[in-house]
Amino acid sequence: MLKTVRIFLFILALMAATVPAGGAGAAEPRVSEATENCLACHTAATPGIVADWKKSRHAQVSPAEALKKDRLSRRVSTEKIPEPLAGSVVGCAECHTLTPAAHPDTFDHEGEQVHVVVTPGNCAVCHPEEAGQYERSKMSWAQKNLADNQLYNDLIQAVVGIYSVKADGLSLQPAGAKDQADSCYACHGTVVKVTGTVVRETDQGDLEFPVLDGWPNQGVGRVNPDGSKGSCASCHTRHQFSIKTARQPYTCSQCHKGPDVPAYKIYSVSKHGNIFSTHKDEWDFEAAPWTVGRDFTAPTCAACHVSLIVDEEGETVAERTHQMNDRLPWRLFGLVYAHPQPKSPDTTVIRNKAGLPLPTELTGQPAAEFLIDEKEQARRTERLQKVCLSCHSHGWVEGHWALWENTIQTANAQTLAATQLILKAWDRGAAQGPAQGDSPFNEALERKWVEQWLFYANSTRLASAMDGTDYGVFAEGRWHMAKNLVEMSDWLKFHLKTKK
Amino acid sequence: MLKTVRIFLFILALMAATVPAGGAGAAEPRVSEATENCLACHTAATPGIVADWKKSRHAQVSPAEALKKDRLSRRVSTEKIPEPLAGSVVGCAECHTLTPAAHPDTFDHEGEQVHVVVTPGNCAVCHPEEAGQYERSKMSWAQKNLADNQLYNDLIQAVVGIYSVKADGLSLQPAGAKDQADSCYACHGTVVKVTGTVVRETDQGDLEFPVLDGWPNQGVGRVNPDGSKGSCASCHTRHQFSIKTARQPYTCSQCHKGPDVPAYKIYSVSKHGNIFSTHKDEWDFEAAPWTVGRDFTAPTCAACHVSLIVDEEGETVAERTHQMNDRLPWRLFGLVYAHPQPKSPDTTVIRNKAGLPLPTELTGQPAAEFLIDEKEQARRTERLQKVCLSCHSHGWVEGHWALWENTIQTANAQTLAATQLILKAWDRGAAQGPAQGDSPFNEALERKWVEQWLFYANSTRLASAMDGTDYGVFAEGRWHMAKNLVEMSDWLKFHLKTKK
Amino acid sequence: MLKTVRIFLFILALMAATVPAGGAGAAEPRVSEATENCLACHTAATPGIVADWKKSRHAQVSPAEALKKDRLSRRVSTEKIPEPLAGSVVGCAECHTLTPAAHPDTFDHEGEQVHVVVTPGNCAVCHPEEAGQYERSKMSWAQKNLADNQLYNDLIQAVVGIYSVKADGLSLQPAGAKDQADSCYACHGTVVKVTGTVVRETDQGDLEFPVLDGWPNQGVGRVNPDGSKGSCASCHTRHQFSIKTARQPYTCSQCHKGPDVPAYKIYSVSKHGNIFSTHKDEWDFEAAPWTVGRDFTAPTCAACHVSLIVDEEGETVAERTHQMNDRLPWRLFGLVYAHPQPKSPDTTVIRNKAGLPLPTELTGQPAAEFLIDEKEQARRTERLQKVCLSCHSHGWVEGHWALWENTIQTANAQTLAATQLILKAWDRGAAQGPAQGDSPFNEALERKWVEQWLFYANSTRLASAMDGTDYGVFAEGRWHMAKNLVEMSDWLKFHLKTKK
After folding, report:
1. Count of structural domains, chain A
2. Between chains, do A399 and C215 touch, taking CB under 8 Å as contact?
């Protein structure tokens, strides 16, 4: 009822005022001539993209207008937009023809120098702070951190390698680029390279296009033809680039749904997720800054980890960050144990004391020199807790933290038990590990060990962190840690006995 | 803001016009006398159905009005509605008393000849094209294709058969009709038959009703008392019959949620699903035709597989079809390998070279004479890709296709490895297969083999097809294909060794 | 279109009337002075809570106004509100300073006697019937029923106990309070106790707060500092306490999502869940009473189990109850078999004939004297079926019931088979059970037995009950019951053979 009254009053107010065209209340921003050229064909050629883009803020507001907002409300982080771009809305040409020389995938397309893959460097013209933050995030390094780590490559092959049956058992052949691109690197990002050109028949006659290897891909650490890392469109989905999309948990669910990182599944059945699912239709996902309690009444992934949050009086609760671990003291993702966040987003530099490219020893101790120290952990804890404290008392938050940090230790302990069993298996010859020149991840017992830390311990810790606690009991958590240990132990006993 | 302005302008327009009663802007369509009779009691007897129906288009528009729309916007596919039906809205009597003699479940009910089960033949009076398409769909044959295939019956009993413990091990007794109806045939459809009558006390005194066996059931291939196959209400849910329901993925999720066909789960965590979940409140799910980019900005299941899609200029992107595989070159559902779609919706006619009622050999070769050829695959690929190309470039679509078709081969190869192990087990006597006169699906190793193709290979292929790629890695995909193979191989080695 | 017309007519009507301030159409309810004091600091200290509360009915309506509604629409169940509370809206002070002497967690806070944990006794001032019903619900006993049952404690330790590796195998140490609070008792509820005080720096200077053990916790059976049981906020989430939250299935999903009680997952992929997910934006989740067909067109968890439902003519379909099993003849949750609901919400009194604190014998017979009899089952069946009959015919409902009750028996039978195997294992020394002084839940075979009834039989029964039938086949149901039995039987055969 109140809402209808408000709509009515608003209509009356509008009647008194003159309603200018365009959404931004200023002189109508213009679509650039270059973009008009694109639209001339693409309205028919790719109607979905064009219609989607028309709904975007990019299609309605020029960077010059965007700059006029006050600091907290501003959605561009540069202080100055280069002249040819400032006055037009952000259309096809503004992004796809920007700095053509820098983009090896640039091609001559109906008189324009167009590149296919828009990269963070393009976005940084208007959003340099966000691009800079993202460069310091492990996410933009996700391709390299996986590809340039020999141990992780062993794991990849244990997951996607191709088995065939030989007379004496199975033979594992490495998976090719396509299988890897269609699995691990779908999220981590592929290396996108121009490999040639192709001529296609189109409504405009025969046209030549570049052929890209590693394409399509929307991974967060995609290595672009210009050498840049990451894809803003992974979360700010084309071509509406809606902040509403990025702020809802469905975006994160694309890669964080489990069982290795079941953040989305856990959120869904948490109290926060419950409130989101029920009340999101009453929330304002477009507002910048994002006002806690008014625009939203429970955090989404973005609220805790990324967004600029203020209270109703305009006080900042959390600064915007696209370095996703900026508010995270712990890295819950076990490799093979949970540990303090790495110092550098480039995790390929990490070596534990045993010389392995892992942030912890196989026996649990953190590779401390490569990880943030307690002071930095405290700083990040404080940032994250400020978000919690918007709605929860200190007692509540401290109590939650105590449960969570205890659970981190418990899940690490249950990983240690599994690791001791696998070490014993390697030592006694019941399985072939690195010391025997073999992958530590591909045999039956080794695979149970992988599930212990990658699935069950991770799930247990995440369920605790996000208070979707029930998930960490039977779904993929504590029950499975315990059951898996018993089965590993029985397996090992049996194989050591029969070996004698 | 713009939305409110639009509402306001719309209100002004309405003030100038005369608002006629009824939603369709024409003379108010009338509820037939027969339906008024139904409503007289049923408004109290089954208030939920009646209130639900009142919200339906059926309750607001008469077929005669529906016929006036232009071809693309028309929701009825007949050219002529029989006279007594044309002028009234589509109410209880219009469907439940239609052609009573054809329906063995017709009974005398307060002076009307009413049948319980409304069948596709009834719907076809106004929607004959859709009914015809659906008849050519495997879905309408889902009951028969399962029930009349001996091998599939073996699988049913391996799933729902009742085990009891005997002195020397387990004994498996076939599950009865109720257990089958409450499992496999819930989706595939039961055979609904009149078995007698029952007298019930009602507010209107004692009344006699037919007793139906196999009822209730909403399976897509339900065999109705009139002998017809399928249920339109499986997707066009009673009694609102809303196109909005059919177009959202939740409808498909009822039977396609996994682990055998996890289409819904995969869609949910795909980019398309992300956009749907976030933006569906801004979409128009009622519009016919459905305009890509304007009415919706990402496909749902219906967009790719069923709906009539146009672009903003009214050009048809895809014709409506209720033959669900009309845009599908491949059948990803492995039996036991993925293969080209069958030619006939009646798959009971299929025999592979080995004489088994399977569309592939156990060693992977397609039973080609029963499957569509490459030309037809190309036609269906083109139809499906036209939907993709609304929003994606040719390079994008081709790249996606290359990944997907590679993944089909990979998952088939991992199915072949598992099949070679089970063939060896049958050959060496470590398990009892068809050659030994036993079900190929019920022993421990056989069940691991079933999971290889039915769960893991299917999940891997679907995850690739719908770009919910992460799902195909750890959730129920490649990791499990690999782990399962290692465990099968170890099991077999051990049992062959102990056998000696 | 109709909606906009309705909005417009409504606006016209509003123009004619005088719109009073406040949402309730009466003199503006006032915020009490005590609550104003709270808000003075907490608007800045915990902005999210305050903003959330402002959106609540509590913040807009005083109890005196709430009492004026007719019986069916009334949201308070008392006949008389104590004077100091009646005239103000329900703010911070109204709940957190109520009966301070009864609350051991009361502390002096800026001149007010504030307690942290608002308990059902506080809510009962306005909502005594609901509090009384909830007291008779097993849910409010969930902490005690778990903690005071030795057998269930064995299960807890099999789930959350900490394993370490010793020379001769694994050693299981009991989990501490934190691990238990962060797993089983997260849903069942912790015991919350004051253990001391702490001084914190705040914007108002140093302030002293109580320290609570077992806090935070939102479990349904939480034992509060005042000795009361349960938390209304488990479902009526703070601080909006919205009936919309409680009526949507997301609330129940927090604890009922599987694999032990996958009610939410099953609902999601049922026809009812499909309709909810698609059409909930058209429903009225705030209306009291809740009118079937008009306010909602498919049941949510609350509709079947809790809510006051009426039809459009105001006839009551179901009375409101917060005794959640008031409409439930069967307890599907197997312990270890499904059985009639217990008579008393205190299930610690139950002993089966074998002396175990279980509602069934290990061989399946119900511990009848502690369970409701057939007459009471019939009463509850009638209450539940009245909800079904709002939208379904008697034939439909009876057919569904017949399938469901058959499936209860089938799942019980497959639990019996597994239990016979485990009894044999205990008898023959292949595992150590209660007779050997050991937990029946912690060894490898025992854990498979647990999964048989706790995961697979429960899932099968729930999937049948809620007509999310497909879920009960491959997801976590019949396939897994069968496969698990075969694996258990093979394991046992092998271990009995090698033992010889």
Report:
1. 1
2. yes
